[in-house]
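Box S2. Input/output pair 1.
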Amino acid sequence: MRKNSLGVALVAVAAVFAAFTGAGAATAAPVSKPIPNSSPGWLTHGKNLGAASPNAAVSARVYLAPNGGLDALKAAATTASSTHKYLTPAQYHAKYDATASTVNAVSGWLTGAGLTVSADPNHRYLDVTGSVAAANKAFGVSISNFTHDGLSVQAPTGAATAPDAVAASVIAVSGLDTTVSVVQPLTQKPSPPSAGFRNAQVCSHWYGDATPATVPTPDGTTLPLFNGKVLPYSPCGYTGPQLRNSYEAGAAAGLNGHGVTVAITDAYASPTIESDANRYATDNGDAAFTAGQFSQSMPDSFRQVQNNKSPKQCDASGWYGEETLDVEAVHAMAPAANIRYYAGKSCQDSDLLDTFSRINDEGVANIVTNSWGGVGDVVKPTLLQAYEVAFLQGAVQGISYVFSTGDSGDEVTNLGTPQTDYPASDPYVTGVGGTSTAITQAGVTAETGWQTTKYGLSSGAWAVTVPFLYGGGGGYSSNIAEPAYQVAAGIHSPNGGRALPDVSMDADPTTGMLVGQTQSFPAGAAYDTYRIGGTSLASPLFAGMTALKIQASGHGLGLLNPMIYANHSGFNDVTGANIDAGNIRVDFVNGLDATNGYVYSVRSFNTTHTTLTVGTGWDTETGWGSARAGWLTPAP
């Protein structure tokens, strides 16, 4: 058997090399096929500066299809999630890893063109290095120098190709285009997380319990009515117990996430995360982590990624606030769950994708929350199929993936046309959108979709200063087809695209969560608290609640969406009824203290400045609505 498999591999390599070079068939042209999503999406507006030097360096990664093909893995993931019969990581690798003969065949094609190849131990990808000349020969491209969107890059002038004999085994290639492909944290905080920030303490402890009529402004400023009504001050930031006791009211006794592991992915790692989370919990009436309850999985090193357009796009300290929010929100909703943080080497797509490999191969986590994403999906991401393989491996192992849907509404302000954001728009993850949420001592008393217009004071009246400030992502993908579970649920997608969000939770920074973090203040580093929002809050809130459902069920759930769309009775339909037009925000001018005075604004709820709407049933702002105790009933 061993000798025979090697012989087959050598024959395959010889066949591929012959097909690529034309050896033995002088009159036949090489047959090749495009590699999916390998043509740079910016080509139509980039400027070609001419061919790259043939000796210039190329570093690429070629992703391999799972054994049996992507469609077979999709079918297996759907079946596993309905039967709850899952594979271990070892069983997955034995069944679905690309075979040695496939690795040899693809390697033979690449090395035959003069490239150097090294294989991932689990055959997910091949790392490829060499020259532009060798890459041009291997991938059938012409690599040129370009400028686009303020960047100077090296990239192919069209789609990369692979020889017909191995084309079905190649699902993606990255690195031929040197444009830095990064994701961003989806938090909304009034100053960069790396710098200290404090909220002015003119705010409501519970929603609506402080207004200008009961609490005067600290500097005597007279605040006018808003559309003839008195608006309350924004909440100071909901604490863990306030959020948990409101969303999970009525849950079965003993549901607290015990025995479940929630994974969190972000770029980099805050050096003070565990001490910050423990102090935040104990200061607000919850228990600190027990020994071993919080753990971290780190890459071998971290790296800074910069480009000449956004030099701080991958700033490590800028991700610390994101990680802090994720950890503290999950712990708030599932106080007994284990939390395992998987740090990405950087905020590049490929580095975040690597965190999923670690999660799936460890097989420890039951659910993964991801509070980051790209901007828009009008062009299919280069790594779309590689991402999907990761999500599908998780599903056949009983692991659920949850993503924030973004903080730019329908993306029209950023991109000019309505778009959804990826990876939230992938059909094999659950996209969590955002609400503006009123929490009182009676629980969640009102909700609407999170889409904000900002008003400032002008001549004694409120006037629009920013028509669309921010809001939860949603709408219909322009490039990813509507999945069967949405069609079966009667969701009408006008363009046939994947509809978002699936569900929603609190995300509006005006009604956001209070978090505690060690920050950089003028006098030095110190722990302090501030209110924060974004769908970066919504995703860990939902993941934390779902940990309770996993606990109640006694097993992992895999793909969540087929279950949600078949029966969404565990979600409160968010219609926008009975909530104020907005809240009054009181902020320090300098973001720290009253030295430079105060600034006043109204942040509206559910602005009409986007194509997204909220209403009865599923909608493009809140999906099926926000989770309640009914979501926590055991899955069969």
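Box S3. Input/output pair 2.
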Amino acid sequence: MTTELENEAAQSTTALGPLIGLTREDIIGAVAVLLRETASDPQRLMRHSQAMGMDMIQIMTGKSELAPHPKDKRFMDPAWRYNPFMRAGAQYYLAVQKGMANWLEELDLDDLEKDRARFISNIIIDSVAPTNTLLGNPTAQKRMIDSGGLSLIKGLKNAYTDLTQNKGMVSQVDKRPFKLGENVATSKGSVVLRTEMMELIQYTPTTDEVYEIPQLTIPPQINKMYINDLSPEKSIVKWQVDNGIQTFVISWRNPSKEQGVWDMADYVRSCREAMEAVANITGAKKVNVSAGCSGGQTAAMLASKMTADKDELLGALTLMVCVLHPKQNDIEAGSLISENGLALAKRRAAKQGVIKGDDLARGFAWLRPNDLIWNYVINNYLLGEDPPAFDVLFWNADATNLSASLMGDFLTVFETLAFTKTGEVEMVDHKIDLSKVKSDLFILGGVTDHITPWKATYRSTQLFGSKDVTYVLSQSGHMQAILNPPGNPKAKFYVQKKKGKLPDTADEWLKGTEEVAGSWWPYWMEWIQARAGDKKPAPGKLGNKNHKPLDPAPGLYVVEEV
């Protein structure tokens, strides 16, 4: 059970995107449409009610053939097949699920309205699954008997802990085994620059020689930077320094309400300040940049602004699991996003100053309730087990606030499709135009990524003016697509067979790809090293006279409480 929870939740880490524009009004609106359509055609309602009644009669007489999907983990216990009462209970639930699906298909709605109705109805139906209760969960009942009731006592204790210490949200991770600097974020390094908004961390070289062009990582603003250095086995930082790359990472400060005025322009200025410090410390004339998720959107804005300013410091650019050209049907909840919802989200954010990390995590969890809520209700409360102790989930639970001004800018970028326009949208004191950015590009997507779907990430290949663009598709989802170190026997990725210009669409690209066994990290490292200049002796110490070492990595901002 624990391994399944880890795998499910690791695919569903919190991410910044159009989801933050989801509002109560949009959800209520979707329900109102359902009710309106129900009332508009009594005959249709009667027809579906009769069909539902027939299913119920079949169940009561033991003649129903309704059965859960073989891969539905909620109904894996043999009792659902062999116990007639449990089987009937599951069939009643499945009949409701089937009836709702059939009814939705017949509603006179356009595609967008139908997607909204389907999304809301699935959340409601998932919440009333019999497995979410002790009476309807045979596995939990057996555990209670086998443990002499101790599983219930432990479950109640877990629920009380969540109510009092986790703001009422069911815990997805056991945080106790993890401590920053001890078994998480252990790579050696030092803060070499600290401002009000960020710390710049330089990591200690582990090779005698290093490449002359350094690498700066821009992390997402809604999570902490140590996703890049989780453990020695899956540390991108360690992989870079072990391969001779001079490695620097920005650590964003967790904004307080007073710092909610920080906007995209402020974050881009901070990135440029970090790049200039990196260049000053290393003596390099170029700085390669890598970024993921919302950090990738920031990096794209940075590249556009630097190009507009004729600043040639930016070298090669890597964008991981990042969508620059979103479409409403890319994600499951996309259908719920509306102009009204975006405007309301902006106003609420401005009033609050910051969007609390806990609120972002809670809203995100309810978009995938089976994976991120009910799984844990069953595991923690009904079975009385601890949630998994998994480093990716520990990082994901270490949420940060998002400044209202930055959220407003992200929503504007989404609403205007700013990155797809050539000089039409103004932000960060310039007109955004990625077609003028000529940096070599490496773009990564994840096959099973439902947060930033890979076909959406592929669209970024068509936005830049770069002549050298590489797209890699990792066999995993979101953060697991990035954290894919060598050594996993199941790992694989896809690349274009023939060198040259990438096709216009993801489907065309996929036809011309080849599957490569193993991690994509070595492939990326070759790409980085080819754009990192010549080798030179590794520096004997970190920083320089202008940027003296301060605190050891991972710095102070990752542990600062707000």
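Caption for Box S3: The chain is about 40% helix and 15% strand. Residues 8-21 have pLDDT under 50 and may be disordered.
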